[in-house]
Design brief:
The chain has 13 helices and 14 strands. The protein is an alpha/beta fold and 328 residues long. The chain folds into two domains: 6-195, Rossmann fold; 204-326, 3-Layer(aba) Sandwich (Rossmann fold). It is globular and about 60 Å long.
Length: 328
């Protein structure tokens, strides 16, 4: 697996090892209850969690970026998320147990003696396996739902209730309040906003259109307006051709990609199909042959963790921004 560039990721870790001064002592046990707004609902935590269990890489690294690894009982994560040895939060991965290389289960949480689960809809929480916040509540275990994954309609399938970076800042703020590391959260957010503003200021006057390709051959899995790629693309200086889709990660038709004729395609690198295999498919798929990005071979790759809500989003914006400025 390809190594992640530690120097680039250090940009995304403004307050976690690149020289920033932040508080290091989280709120202790026995503190008073904390009420947060999560997915539009008030949620009260009667005590500060001491054994948090997380699902997947972006959610896990939100905890690490806030210096909360000592409050974690473990995480579940597939082993297709790239080399984790060079990330700014390597110490977190060294300290916190890797509970499962599949999605979380109630058994994982109970075995780890977890006292809070931090996951999201389609990022761990799912009805078909009976792993939901309501099911955990019956076991006496509270949950925090990743804001990027909050459901937004009556059918309870579409996800996303706010712009993706606002979702990132909301979760950092909420977790900072819950664990008593508000200053650290604020420092992270401030650093991220400055880094992103610097990239946005260099954006080309004519914004290139961009299609995010996650996976799928019969139908592409992509990002609507509420998943992280939408703002990663826009802050980098582009326009997500699927911005009108009121969902986060979802399936569309190839005909809509052809019709919108993106200037650039961004590949999400993860899973059993490599980024190079995905690129070969895009370049050889007959319906796409007249699409500008395919004709001119303007295809750029970012890692999965860059493209889901995570503290690596600002670094992804910087790297994509540099590519969009140079792509001819």
């Amino acid at each position: 697996m390809r190594k992640l560039l530690a120097a680039a990721l250090c940009l995304a870790a403004t307050a976690t090892g690149c020289g920033a001064s932040v508080e290091t002592t989280p709120k202790g046990p026995g503190s008073s209850s904390v009420t947060l707004t999560n997915c539009g609902k008030k949620v009260t935590f009667d005590k500060v969690p001491e054994r948090v269990v997380t699902n997947d890489v972006g959610i896990t690294e939100l905890m690490f970026a806030l210096g909360l690894e000592d409050r974690m009982a473990g995480f579940a994560m597939p082993d297709d998320k790239g080399d984790l040895s060079g990330v700014p939060w390597k110490d977190g991965y060294d300290k916190v147990p890797w509970l499962s290389k599949d999605q979380l289960t109630k058994e994982n949480v109970l075995d780890a003696r977890g006292d809070m689960v931090f996951a999201g809809w389609n990022y761990g929480f799912r009805e078909d396996a009976g792993f939901t916040p309501d099911a955990l509540k019956k076991l006496g275990i509270p949950s925090y739902i990743l804001t990027e994954s909050c459901r937004n309609d009556r059918t309870k399938t579409s996800r996303g209730i706010m712009p993706p970076l606002e979702a990132l800042y909301t979760d950092l703020t909420n977790l900072g309040k819950l664990f008593g590391v508000e200053k650290r959260a604020a420092t992270l957010i401030s650093g991220f906003k400055k880094e992103i503003a610097d990239v946005h200021a260099q954006a080309p006057a004519k914004k290139p259109t961009v299609f995010l390709y996650d996976s799928g051959q019969d139908q592409p899995f992509t990002s609507g307006r509420y998943a992280a790629p939408d703002q990663i693309i826009s802050e980098a200086g582009g326009v997500n051709v699927m911005h009108d889709v009121r969902d986060s990660w979802t399936t569309v038709g190839w005909e809509s990609v052809v019709e919108r004729n993106p200037d650039t395609i961004v590949i999400c690198d993860y899973g059993d199909v490599s980024a190079e295999q995905k690129k070969r498919f895009l370049l050889s798929y007959a319906p796409l042959r007249n699409v500008s990005a395919v004709k001119h071979r303007r295809i750029f790759t970012l890692d999965y963790v860059d493209l889901v809500e995570s503290p690596r989003n600002p670094s992804a914006i910087a790297r994509l921004g540099a590519y969009l400025r140079t792509a001819g």
